[in-house]
Amino acid sequence: MEGQQHDTYTYPGSTSASPTPAPRSLESYSQLMHTLATRQMQSALAAARANSDTSMLSTNSSSTSFRTPDVVLLLTAIARRRDRIHRGEALDDDEQPLTWTCLSYLTMIWSEAYWMEPGQIVRRCNGVESRHRARDSYIKQQDAEAQLVAAGVFEWRRAFWYLIKTLERVASHKDNTVASGDDTAEVLLQADFHIPAVACWIKHNGRKLYDEIVKDKLKLWEEKDVPVEARHFDHPTERWSFWAGRLSEFARDQPDDFVKGAACHAVENMEAIAGASRRYNARHDGGDETCIICPTMKDDPRVD
């Protein structure tokens, strides 16, 4: 229709100087999902495995700085569509037609692909090099998931869940060991997997996490949605301080320089985020700390 606004998307690898109109029909979106989304996702994952000797904390490689943002951009564009999936016969739990806005199948596919916890992954490694490859692949997957959460493709609570489960759990003397079975392995901390992944979650979602913590949004959750590892804090911001304290312990006590570096990186980001909030509060008389980081701040520190 003349004058109608069309969503556009510049497809990865396109040589066109102008954006390609986003497909509007069911058939074209089905083709898009099959030929582009799947290919890009598989390409990104394959590259992540092939280049697993590259630390996720360094985002200059093509597998991390190019492919993951492209996949996130693609999925975000698809999620904006309000078209019904298939011919409208697919229904949700409320018997309402499923639409692309939900990306209903993505969470299921992602969960099926990445169901193992670090302890379970470690059980399947057969040496130091095997563990390092598995570790780097896991961290890259967590970094991609954190970006999908930040973009609104995955549920926001995933960020809270990961940090609470990792940093508020009760330490065990069996942590960082290889368990005899998957049930035990599932709950064990593997610092070389978990702590760098935490750094990724802080990098991509730290500002919003701090915002939610300051506003004590966790108390609004239904009890069933709160991780069993969650601790009670008298003041909301104590949770942020507790997380930073736990990470500082890893930075101080871990013999692995890889873990130390990741923990330090996360703490630096957390301090920058909290510091920016304090400076904003001071300028706006927000003494009760309910006023958080303003997105239009001009002197906001770089957090990366």
Automatic annotation (TrEMBL):
InterPro entries per the record? Answer: OpdG
Taxonomic classification, please?
Answer: Eukaryota, Fungi, Dikarya, Ascomycota, Pezizomycotina
Q: What's this protein's name? A: Uncharacterized protein
* Region annotation (Disordered) ranges: 1-25
List where Low complexity composition bias occurs. 8-25
- Please name the source species: Purpureocillium lilacinum (Paecilomyces lilacinus)
Q: Which domain of life is it from?
A: Eukaryota
